[in-house]
Each structure stands twice: as C-alpha cells, then as structure tokens.
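Before drawing any conclusions, I looked closely at one protein's amino acid sequence and its backbone structure tokens, quoted below without any editing.
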Amino acid sequence: MDLQCLLWLQDIRMQAGETIENILALISDTTPFLVVIMCLLYVMVDKKKFCRVLFCYSICVTINAFVKITACVYRPWIKEPKIVPAKNSLAAATGYSFPSGHTAAASSCSMEMIAEYKQNKLLAVLLILYICVVVFTRMFLGCHTPQDVLVAVLEGFLAVLATAALMAFVEKKDGNDKILFIAANILFAILIVYALIKPYPIDRDAAGEILVSPKKMQNDAMFDFSFALGFVHAWFLEKRFVKFSTDGISARQRILRGVVEALFGIVINLVIYSIAKQYVDKRLAKFIKGYLYSFAAAYLAPLVFSKIERALKW
C-alpha cells in the first residue's frame, strides 16, 4: 500500500511537469537551511528560545540516525523498481529510507518553535503547514514512504518532550548541567561505537553492486551524532564561560553576530571539511564537519563576537 501510494503520486508528478517538480524539490531541501536560520536566530534574536530549538533538533537527529542504522530500510526505488525518484532530490536522499531526515529536521525545529511561541497562532499555523509540505514533498518526489515521514514527525514530537524534560532538569538545580554534559558524552560514545561496529545488510543489485554502502550510512550517522555532541559541548561551555545575551542588542550587534556566524560556517565547509575529506577517512571528515558546525555556531562564534563587542564597548 505504501509503495502504491508513491506510484500514484509519481503519476501526478510526471503529469505536472519538471517545473513543479523542481519547485517542490527546492522546498523540500530547505531543511538544512532551516538549521542555519535557527543558529542565526539563537545569537541575533532570542538566545533562550532558540537554544531550546537547537537542543530539540539535536535530540531528534540523534534519534533519527540511530533508528536509520538500526532498521536499515532501503529506499522506495530499491524495493519497487517502478518508482523513479526526482533526479534533483537524489543527492540529498542518501543511505537508508526510514525515517525521513528532512521531515525529522522540519518537525523538530518547527514543533519546538511552536512550543516556545505559544501565543503566536499565525506562526503555529505557518509552521504546521511547513511540516505538512515537507511531508508531502518527500513522498511526492519518491524519496520516502508514508511510514518514513510519519515516524519522523513522531520523532520530532518526542524530541520536543525530551527537550522540555531536560531543560527542566537543568534549571532545577545548579550542577545539573554538568550531569547532562557527562551523560551526553557517554551516550554519544556508545552511539558512535555502535554505528561503527554493528553489522549492516550487504545486498547487491543485478550488476553485483552493493545496494547501500555501510560506510555511506556511517558517514551520515557520524555527521548527525557529531552535530548533536558538538552542540552539547558548545551549550555547556557557553553557559559557563561566555554567557552572551540577546536582550536589548542593537542592529549593529545583530549584523556583527550574523557575519561572525557566517564566516565560521564558510571556513568549516570550504576549508576545513575540504581538507579533511582529502586526507582522512570520510567518516572522520563527516564527524569533524558536523561537530564543528554546531560547536562553532553555539560557542566559538559567541566567544568571538562577545570579545569584539567588549573591545568596541557596544
């Protein structure tokens, strides 16, 4: 039934034409940029609220990566050769199918924003609509089955609950942040070892090629786990040593902070990751990239712009 649903949507996509397909693919691939926007809003608009959003996202991608490498569910076009995914969506549709990473990202960020801005009904409607659009486009483009996207939405909801519980725990007593920090390090050490040593299915196509390379799945898991780990480290260090604020900041401070965040992202992506993937194992390169993305966004950038602001007496 799930694959038949995709075939039905595929017929509509083929009739709709390439322009509609390209537009929906573009909307579907906004989720990586959504995380970038959350990082900018964290330093430019509301530190507390968007720290929680990034926490929620980190929890969700951790759950998603763990489920993916545990379930090892093949993409729809592997299970049903009649399914032809949109060409411009294949680059982001790596590895296994279940659950949908795009949907998990959209759901966790959007649901936590709704939780943080409870009084803003219009924002809630727009964010719910955004989740629904991402859910639809992932199926419409042939990348995911209904269960892939629905479980990803559930992951986002569970991440919201986990975020509320963890933040309540941290705020309950001084020193609880250290307990969370230690527990997170132990958890991610276990997850990383699990991702590297667990067995993966080695099925081959008619030409003898492996359907899904275990290393490719490990690459994705390393990025997600390291992003979440980097954020926990950044959150802990910033909370104790930087302590920047978004209360009453000026327009020039917002611009400075946005520029510093952007510069770190550019250097990590175009310099550090480019060098790393040439000289070390791709899994380690992905780990470095994911870790530095969140660590720089939530700690290094705030450390730098805080020093600049103090030097300029802003």
